[in-house]
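Researcher: Good morning. I'm working through a list of sequences from a screen, and I'd like to move beyond sequence-only analysis. For each chain I'm collecting a predicted structure so we can compare shapes side by side. This is the next one on the list. No need for commentary yet; just the structure.
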Amino acid sequence: MNPVRIRIAVSLLVISLFLFLFCGGEKISSYLSFILLPFQFVPALIRALTNPAVIFIIGLISIFVVTLIFGRVYCSFLCPLGIFQDIFIALSNKIGWRRKHSFQKPRDLLRYSILGLIIITVALGSMSLVNIFDPYSIFGRIITQFVLPFFLWIYNVVVNGMKYFHVYLYSKDTVPVVMSALFINLSFLILIVTLSLRHGRLYCNSICPVGTLLGLISRLSFFKFAIDKTGCNACLNCVTVCKAGCIDTQNAVIDQSRCVGCFNCLDVCPQSVVSYCPAVKNREGETWSPARRGLIIGGVAAAGSALLMITSGIRNLLRPVHAAAAQPITPPGSISRDHFTQACSACHLCVSVCPTKVITPSFLDYGMSGLLQPLMNYPESFCEYECNLCGRVCPTGAILPLSMEEKQITQIGEVDLLKDKCVVYINHQNCGACVEVCPTKTITFVNRANILYPVVDNQYCIGCGACSKACPTDPKSIIVKPNAVHKKAVKSLTKDTPIQQKSAIPQDFPF
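Model: Good morning. Structure tokens for this chain:
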């Protein structure tokens, strides 16, 4: 069977599944995350090193083994950003925007510098460059910031139109816009689309750190593409279809570190002089080569990075201090702010699946070390008491999966009642909005002269933010203060239990 058709079929299936992962709703996203995410290189690497899970370790080993056997086929078959680029490359071929492909000299200084800088910043405890350059995370942010809002806009237009036919459905909230983060994501989208339309897989071979690392490994792959120079008639068909620009027909050489295994050259060669077969290695008289030196240096650097990632003492010594004064709140399951910022790759899958959209993109809220990592956006929304989806879909372990019982007693923050802003305390008139929505009965009433004054008992509080969302005052008279390290709340009354009124007046009660 034609390998190009197999690649196209597999690629279309994979990118369709990723679209469903980010846009398909709770059940679909939860199911697909288990299937797809262990086979994404950066999430699997982070998860294997920080919060080991068997399926992610298997996925990571599988990527290395496949690369050692078949070369960089991961970039054409499994990487969603690579497949995303292929769509625009195919589009440019159809409409004539594509420049004629030709052999391009490798930009080794650029790609190895980016890989080296990423390794150094990770060693220093910062995920900023990983967040910016990880191909899966870039794809996730593109889908979350641009594709998903478009789908939701269409859905809401249809829902509003159905009202004229007396069919009433709920509209869906869109992902909140953070202009600074949106600007970065839009810049990468424009860069990747432009390079794809004009230069093929130039991004993959000159910027992408995953492509660079897998390229080093693919130099040793068992199967390689080769050109039989004796039978080649220099038609250059293979060069014109090579998306990676890695075929040097003049010297009959294909750069294995940049070849993404698309099989286009194999498909168009009229003389069948391009082959994909086991590499013949003659080690007699073999000399030291820059390629092998690059492989060894890259391997040592990667091993050193891995060692630093799992050596918490060294990382804590080197990690820069978080810059933000008012620290953000991290989702339940993230354990602590440090754990979250050291493991999150900013793919924004949790942003796309959050039913209340309380998890939103950020820019520098965590400081430079947590660039683009999401946060809990209080008081614009709240964390649904009976939802634990973000932990079930997070690929890196930044948000660990919690059972519903665990989630409902995980205290990510504590509420603070600002009595100098509360209408009940200022105007002595009933409100009760915060008490009505509190799922844990952290906020209850004290009755004095037929006025119900809200009081807080934070031992029950989980920091869900429902009270802050419901509070009608501006600015809010009840806010959630973050816990840098998450705690456990006392198991509260069930949501259906009637509101209890405290009989005793606390000592700090002002009336």
